[in-house]
Amino acid sequence: MKTALVCGAGGFIGSHLVKRLKAEGYWVRGVDLKYPEFSPTPADDFVIGDLRDPYFVRSVIDRRFDEIYQLAADMGGAGYVFTGEHDADIMHNSALINLNVLDAAYKRNCKRIFYSSSACMYPAYNQMDPENPKTAEHTAYPADPDSEYGWEKLFSERLYLAYHRNYGLEVRIARYHNIFGPEGTWIGGREKAPAALSRKVAVAKLKGLPYIEVWGDGQQTRSFLYIDECLEGTLRLMRSDFTGPVNIGSEEMVTINQLAALLMEIAGVQLEIRHVPGPVGVRGRTSDNALIQEKLGWKPSEPLRRGLERTYAWIEEQVRKAIAAGKL
Ligand code: NAD
Known about the structure:
Elements: E1 3-7, H1 12-23, E2 27-32, E3 45-48, H2 54-60, E4 67-70, H3 78-81, H4 87-107, E5 112-118, H5 148-167, E6 170-176, E7 179-180, H6 193-207, E8 211-215, E9 221-222, E10 225-226, H7 227-238, E11 246-248, E12 254-255, H8 256-267, E13 272-276, H9 290-296, H10 304-324
Parallel strand pairs: 1-2, 1-4, 2-3, 4-5, 5-6, 6-11, 7-10, 8-13
Antiparallel strand pairs: 9-12
Helix pairs in contact: 1-7, 4-5, 6-8, 6-10, 8-10
């Protein structure tokens, strides 16, 4: 039986990845500061602990796992990453996790390790034009990410590549672009645009409010990738002979206003959009999928609407329960 370790298994992508690996017949150990919030984990072993602690990391990487997935990070949406208030924690915590996990994997002779980088590492100067952002992998340098979160991702990419060059460790690096889906953070400050807007639309619908608020002018463009396709790309990359870094994202670019309109259509409501000041990030970003297509012969293709329908339905259910419990 193949064995896998998932770091960050209590989080959004990690908890879905554990389910997928279990469905494929793997023995899986999950590690996180917390259990998954929304459904029980099927992991064979789930260890609660802090990956910033190198002794703890050595204790969970206690064998030659066939596959290690390093997804743990101090992260969130624009409300967490782009205000600047969490910069020190983001850099310190995530860098320590990567330093510890990678080194323990190497010393334990593990064969293969996956690292989840982010589109946030691309230079801000290539993402000023909402119609034409550049995110081909080779455009990463000269580096100029617009957040410390992006700088940490860039540092860690280089760290993984250095272990590959110097120690022959098989590393696989993906640059995720805005992953969304059910059982992700939808409230509290760390949620991202699809979840935040789904919540706002659902609250307005269920409480009979006439409008929702959108940060900024809503003209900034983004693309969003549904969780199932993210996992498909991740596993294909992990089991290929391509190191990366490679984008895993959607090429279906929409403005935030269009995203809000699509969600209202799905919810069956017409609401006014009020634009309010808030952290927004770069003007435009979408995935460039030429390299993943070339190296893996595959790229995500599901329409945004399909994933949004599933995600909105799940979030409306959460909002309904929260309202019934007097929490919203
Ligand atoms: P998430 O916040 O839901 O999951 C990260 C998990 O890491 C959390 O459960 C958290 O508790 C855990 N963690 C944080 N610090 C830890 C520590 N010291 N010890 C143990 N566990 C710790 O985020 P996610 O959306 O599932 O993202 C997973 C990875 O993918 C992250 O590295 C993130 O930067 C990257 N990524 C995600 C997206 C996205 O759109 N979701 C986009 C780009 C990159």
